[in-house]
Amino acid sequence: MKKIIKLLFVVLLVLSFSSCEKFLDLKPHSQGIAVDIESTDSVLYKSADEVEAALAGVYGDFRNEYFELDYFVNGDAQSDDAYAGADNPANFQIDDYKINAINSNVSRDWAYLYGTIGRANTVINNVDAVTDPVLTDARKKEIKGEASFIRAFMYFELVRLWGDVPLQLTEVKTISAANLEEIYPILFPARATVAEVYTQIIADLELARSSVKTVAANKGYVTKGAVNTLLAKVYATIEPHDWNKVLGYCNDVIAGGYSLLPEYDMLWDNNHENSAESIFEINYDGTSSSGNWGASMFMGMDWKKFNIPSNDLVRAFDQENDVIRKNSSITWLDVTGKWSDIHWPQTNYPFVNKYRIYTSPSPQNYIFYRLADVLLLKAEALNETGDVAGAAALVNQVRARVNLAPTTASTQDAMRLAIEKERRLELAFEGHRWYDLKRTGRAIAVINAATGVGGEPLGYQLTENRLFWPIPQAELDKNSKLTQNAGY
Questions:
Q1: For residue 195, which phi and psi values (nearest 5 degrees)?
Q2: Is residue 145 a contact partner of residue 224, using CB atoms and an 8 Å limit?
Q3: Residue 351 forms beta bridges with which residues?
Q4: Mean per-residue pLDDT for 51-56?
Q5: Alpha carbons 486 and 85: distance in angstroms, whole number
Q6: What domains can be seen in the chain, in order of their start residue?
Q7: How far is CA 432 from CA 104, 208, 333, 338, 355, in A?
Q8: Fewest CB atoms within 10 A around its CB: which of 15, 239, 397, 448?
Q9: Contact of 201 with 159, CB cutoff 8 Å
Q10: CA nearest to 354, candidates 293, 266, 421
Q11: pLDDT of residue 184
Q12: Widest CA span in the chain
């Protein structure tokens, strides 16, 4: 009887979601599960075209709201590089480290990431069953590798934002009394530990590393360079850090034929898309179906924009006399009569300058991984393994491109701070700063020391409990197996 009641509940849950989606969201977002109550067909994809379309759908999620906007809010406005800007209370909470469990950004980001994981799961788990001879075994392997990279990418976002999270690797195809005990934990999962999530991320990336292409049609497709980059980032983030692994994967990227562009601004002038420096880059066509509306969130005079450059970051550029990267990263406009801001005067108001085609729909590409990031990550690994001189050589390579003198750091501790500063200035507004501060254990000290207008303290009160986000309250309400993070 209990099994029947559970079955009825699950069926009603699924049917309620499918018929009343706009009225009431009943489906836990920690799944991304395809459910067919009636079907007994075990073959989901009947042709090569169907599989390729499904994979394209997984890739397409890199063009959703999470990656066009929230990815940069989470990495930059949540750091000392940018203020929230605009007028969204959810973003203000993120900026001020006062997030709660009903924050709308928190809820939608959970949903976006698990939605993509669900689509990736469906491809990974069903591609091998396709009998269409057009789909070769080699291509099946590539498809599974590409989808596995994307699943790993999403879990890396999740584990860094929330810590312990549900680990979903399968999808539900049918619901019946016979399989209820099997599918119930999939529909209502508990949180896996951070260690378990990283184990799966690494497994997915190693599978991808052995199967994806070395070169693709453009940098928007998963290649070995992208896989090696993410592996290096993972091993620099897990506790304890594995710096030898970081070195190895960074070296594999560097040996992959990438090179720094001769001028820093070439990365952002929109004349050098998918360049030799780019490793993973989301491509947009500027059409209604492939337009980047996110660029208009950071630049424009029609309304107050998100991710306003911070006084603290501008001072960091000025103190380093880093004119080239400052001008490429920040532009200044007169917004008199448009809006006011406690951080900046209307006559000289800053905007992010790396995403310059902000008309909608925009063909503006986003670069997620590039060689300079990897060079500085390798410098970090060298420094942590005792090679301060080797680290300095890489830092100086990055600095030389923007006409800055070699670093003066000569000890391991000094080099740590030099690399932290170099990553900040080189990668500003690319979504990295918050995660860099977290993985190095520097977030609390740096954020709480951040200063605003005139060097006055901003008064942030970041604590250990605020380094991770709360599990969305809506997810807790749907799934009793989920537990809340400490402090919320």
A1: -60, -40
A2: no
A3: 331
A4: 98
A5: 28
A6: 27-198 (1.25.40.390), 259-458 (1.25.40.390)
A7: 22, 23, 25, 30, 16
A8: 239
A9: yes
A10: 266
A11: 77
A12: 75
Q: What's residue 41's pLDDT?
A: 59
Cα Rg for the chain, rounded, in angstroms? 23
Q: Residue 155, by phi and psi: left (phi above 0), alpha (psi -120 to 50) or beta?
A: alpha
Q: Give the pLDDT confidence score for residue 32 in this predicted structure.
A: 52
What's the CA angle centered on 19, arms 17 and 20, to 5 degrees?
A: 65
pLDDT tens digits for 320-364? 999 999 999 999 999 999 999 999 999 999 999 999 999 989 999
pTM of the model: 0.93
| Lowest-confidence segment of 19-23, 65-69, 83-87, 407-411 by average pLDDT | 19-23
Q: If we measure between CA atoms, which residue out of 364, 467, 368 comes closest to residue 97?
A: 467
272: which residues sit within 8 A by CB, 6+ positions away?
Answer: 261, 266
